[in-house]
From TrEMBL:
This is phosphoglycolate phosphatase. It is an enzyme of class 3 (hydrolase). Gene3D superfamilies: HAD superfamily/HAD-like, Putative phosphatase, domain 2. Signal peptide: none annotated. Its EC number is 3.1.3.18. GO terms for cellular component: cytosol. InterPro entries: HAD-like_hydrolase_sf, HAD-like_sf, HAD-SF_hydro_IA, HAD_2, HAD_sf, PGP-like_dom2. It catalyses: 2-phosphoglycolate + H2O = glycolate + phosphate. Pathway: Organic acid metabolism; glycolate biosynthesis; glycolate from 2-phosphoglycolate: step 1/1. GO terms for molecular function: phosphoglycolate phosphatase activity. GO terms for biological process: DNA repair.
Length: 224
């Protein structure tokens, strides 16, 4: 019986805050001609990026589905080109993944709202070889906080009978884990959380202040 260790990507495995805080305003300025501060869209953090573009397109009276598609395509290209420049690894994550890799019944994966094209960039990181699977937001009908991507991971790996966990830095991650059709523990990664109080308000099964505390918990729960 296989168990799944599922991780959100941005804000959980890697720090991409600089990438996002540079990229989002850049796209909005390019297409809508307005300047925005992160405080104006931080409430949508961790959700579909198109929700942010839609908000400001409507505010500027320039909304159309074609416009949003163009903004997203531009953002996707900008993100890929600048990924290596802005992304920072979280200290301790490699040790977490290496520990889990010793468990022969455990599969390690990424479940993210990123498109698969951008999510697969994780394989190029220093710990990318430790990842067994990736589920991108464009692979399912509904992104987090819906449980579709988590359910997809479980079902595609025939792990319905397993005991799994999903860890993320946003309340949408906790909601997705809690509403899954399968046995999935909801874990909070406070080290990358923009809204830690919102995350904790969803009553995750466990929260961790940093990857090191997460590692010690894993060591007490899983023995390979």
């Amino acid at each position: 019986m296989e168990n799944l260790a599922m991780f959100d990507l941005d804000g959980t495995l890697i720090d991409t805050s600089d990438l996002l805080f540079e990229g989002i305003p850049h796209v909005i300025k390019e297409f809508l001609g307005i300047n925005v501060a992160k405080e104006e869209y931080i409430d949508l953090w961790g959700l579909d990026i198109n929700l942010i573009f839609t908000r400001f397109a409507k505010r500027a009276n320039k909304y159309s589905s074609r416009k949003i598609d163009a903004m997203f395509s531009f953002y996707e290209d900008w993100y890929i080109k600048n990924h290596a420049k802005y992304v920072k690894p979280y200290e301790g994550i490699r040790e977490v993944l290496e520990f889990l890799k010793h468990d022969k019944y455990m599969k390690i994966g990424i479940v993210t709202t990123r498109t698969l094209k951008r999510a697969n960039m994780a394989y190029d990181l220093e710990w990318g070889h430790l990842i067994d699977f990736v589920v991108g937001g464009d692979m399912v009908a509904h992104k987090k906080p819906a449980p579709d991507s988590i359910n997809f991971a479980v079902e595609s790996l025939n792990a319905q009978a397993g005991s799994h966990f999903f860890i993320g830095d946003n309340k949408s991650d906790i909601l997705a884990a809690k509403s899954s059709s399968y046995k999935v523990a909801s874990l909070g990664a406070l080290w990358g959380a923009e809204h830690p109080a919102d995350l904790k308000s969803e009553n995750p099964d466990k929260v961790f202040t940093d990857p090191h505390s997460f590692y010690h918990w894993l060591a007490s729960e899983y023995h390979g």
